[in-house]
Amino acid sequence: MKVRRADYMQAMLDLTFDLGYEEVAIEQIAAAAGGTAADFKRHFPTKLDCAVAILEELAENNLRAVRGAFDSEAEWPDSLRAAAYAHARWIAENPKKMHFGLLEMLWASDLTGALRDHLFGSYIAMVDAGREVTADPDAIADYTAESVVGSITQVLVRRLDKSALDLYALVPEMMYLAVRPYLGEEAARKELTIPPPDREGRSGAT
Description:
- By secondary structure, the chain is mainly α.
- It contains ten helices and no strands.
- Helices cover 68% and strands 0% of the residues.
């Protein structure tokens, strides 16, 4: 049976999750996929090329889910909350991809850095949409959304290696961090009390 490009990508994901990116060799990836190192190199000249292909695919899939949820709500912060829960669902459904992108490859090279900047730029734009509903947009510092996304990323990095982690339970805390600079303490505290949607995304808010 012919080994597909996607088979090598999946093998790299699996091996990286178990061993770490630096410890995985092309020969191991090829063997796990049922192919050969020579065939792997026909699809990907280097291991990094395979990694970049994985990152491009996961970024596209993640943003489709997250941005789609954001666009499903007319007003901020409802839109950001929907996006946050969609992101939590995506992570729960794709733990190896999230581990690969956030823990293994986030700072690996200029190529992965460009992908990171594109992905995080989309998250930052969704947070900074709060500027449109704040009472005084000029009072919001230019770096506010970047700081919020950076803080949330640090929380995820610290907690992603915990197998029992329930990211759904973290969303209200994340929303508090995001809403407070734009709408103030009262609105931010309200985020801590809003019921989550169910795991399929149907709203639990009343």
